[in-house]
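Human: If only I could read backbone structure tokens as easily as an amino acid sequence. Underneath my words sits a plain record pairing an amino acid chain with its backbone structure tokens. Take your time, and here it is.
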Amino acid sequence: MTTDETLASYGVNGFPVVAIVLLDKVLKDTERQQIVNALKQSNWIISGAQGAAARLGMKRSTLQARIANLGI
């Protein structure tokens, strides 16, 4: 393996690219599950005092964007 190949296989702060990709997947899966759980607990209501956004401690618009980004 050349120096360029070695450098290319490492990403942020020297962590292997594979580890970064796996961590990203775990984080997205965890976020997706937390959002789905909050939506189920709130009967799929996003806004309001008892809505999923309030349960997650975020604004309705933020939750809507995350729902769209995660394909929920």
